[in-house]
């Protein structure tokens, strides 16, 4: 399994980008419009990746739910079987937001969201 990214729900995308660029030293590597009210920005190169999501719908989210750790798996179906055999409930998904990615989310024992994702189409 490979660590993919940490997802953070942010209230102000530009303020957050400025912080992660100027203070942390990460570079913007991709920006995605995921609908009329959702913007996603990926920062970081190599092993360090952060995904910032800004959406009016999510701005009032409980801060305890505003962080997700993402991990890449070879087979999402195998991981779902693995999770189900342990009696862990899937909280979200599986979801396929675009043709090249499919994922599902569980919670760790502390309530932190853990995302397992499979890149599709050889990506």
Features:
123 residues; alpha+beta; 2,3-Dihydroxybiphenyl 1,2-Dioxygenase, domain 1; eight-stranded mixed β-sheet; globular
Stretches with pLDDT under 50, minimum 5 residues:
none
The major pleated sheet works out as: 8 strands, mixed
CATH C-level class of the largest domain: Alpha Beta
Instruction: Calculate the terminal CA-CA distance, rounded to whole Å.
Output: 15 Å
Number of helices: 2
Amount of helix: 10-25%
In spatial order, strands of the major sheet run: 2-3-4-1-5-8-7-6
SSE succession: EHEEEEHEEE
Overall outline: globular
CATH topology of the largest domain: 2,3-Dihydroxybiphenyl 1,2-Dioxygenase, domain 1
Kindly report the name of the CATH homologous superfamily of the largest domain. 2,3-Dihydroxybiphenyl 1,2-Dioxygenase, domain 1
Provide the structure class.
alpha+beta
Number of domains: 2
Question: Strand-residue fraction?
Answer: 35-45%
Strand runs, count: 8
Mean pLDDT: 87
Organism: Sedimentibacter acidaminivorans
Protein name: Lactoylglutathione lyase
Enzyme class: lyase
Keywords: Lyase, Metal-binding
């Amino acid at each position: 399994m490979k660590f993919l990214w940490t997802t953070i729900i942010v209230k102000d995308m530009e303020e957050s980008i400025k912080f992660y660029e100027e203070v942390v030293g990460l570079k913007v590597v991709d920006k995605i419009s995921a609908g009329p009210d959702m913007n996603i920005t990926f920062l970081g190169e190599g092993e360090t990746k952060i995904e910032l999501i800004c959406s009016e719908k999510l701005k009032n989210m409980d801060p305890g739910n505003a962080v997700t750790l993402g991990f890449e798996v070879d087979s999402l179906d195998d991981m779902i079987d693995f999770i189900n055999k342990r009696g862990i409930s899937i909280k979200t998904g599986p979801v396929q937001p675009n043709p090249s990615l499919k994922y599902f989310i569980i919670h760790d024992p502390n309530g932190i969201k853990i995302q397992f994702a499979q890149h599709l189409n050889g990506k």
